[in-house]
Amino acid sequence: MTASELVFSCIIIKQPKGFTALCLDLDVASEGVSPAKAKRMLREAVELYLDSAIDSNLPYLRPVPREHDPRIASPTKITESFNLTVNLRVSAVA
């Protein structure tokens, strides 16, 4: 078993009540009352999404569609851009 790191592009979007953290590479989002809480919740959502996609033998990369990308649709609401690094354990069975 080896460990691999995956790095994803993410943003924080200011909402009327709180913040949304969005992983642009996976189209996975989460919310929190603060940017830090939204990031923590996003990490958990991304890890669960990746586990599910890999266990189901599905492709995991699915970028946010261009027409829904906040960087294009509403760039003034973006308060932060950041990278999310996830450690992924990979094992092979023959």
What can you tell me about this protein's structure?
- The protein is of the alpha+beta class.
- It contains two helices and four strands.
- The chain has helices spanning 35-55, 70-73, and strands spanning 2-15, 18-23, 28-32, 78-90.
- It starts with a strand and ends with a strand.
- 17% of the residues are buried.
- The model has no long low-confidence stretch (mean pLDDT 91).
Strand and helix map with partners:
Elements lengths: L1 E14 L2 E6 L4 E5 L2 H21 L14 H4 L4 E13 L4
Largest sheet: 4 strands, antiparallel
Termini separation: 13 Å
Rg estimate, integer Å:
14 Å
Name the CATH class.
Alpha Beta
| Number of structural units classed as domains | 1
